[in-house]
Design goal:
The chain crosses the membrane at residues 6-27. Keywords: Membrane, Transmembrane, Transmembrane helix. The protein has 85 residues and is mostly helical. It has helices spanning 2-31, 41-46, 50-62, 64-77. It has one domain. The protein contains four helices and no strands. Helix 1 (2-31) crosses helix 4 (64-77). It is elongated, with a radius of gyration of 16 Å. The protein starts with a helix and ends in an 8-residue tail after the last helix.
């Protein structure tokens, strides 16, 4: 039983770590979307098609811990309006 728990935990940690850069790229692309410029978040999502809206919701919620870390990293790197590389 203990070895099974270690396997499950290691798979979950690996998925968490793999999804951080994926979610970071998703957040960066979402922030740079030209349709979002000058529009609040509610209007932005209301103007999407149903299929696109569902994809966005599922992407954000499915990997919530990775999304939270990627969002923190994105905000930290862009807090002064400049990318630190």
């Amino acid at each position: 039983m203990s070895s099974e728990m270690w396997i499950i935990a290691s798979v979950l940690v690996a998925a968490f770590l793999i999804m951080i850069p994926v979610q970071y790229r998703y957040i960066a692309a979402l922030k740079e979307d030209p349709r979002r410029q000058g529009v609040d978040q509610e209007t932005y999502y209301n103007n999407m098609s149903f299929q696109e809206e569902q994809l966005h919701y599922n992407t954000q919620v499915l990997f919530l811990p990775s999304t939270m870390v990627a969002s923190w990293i994105y905000n930290w790197r862009h807090k002064s309006g400049k990318t630190t590389k």
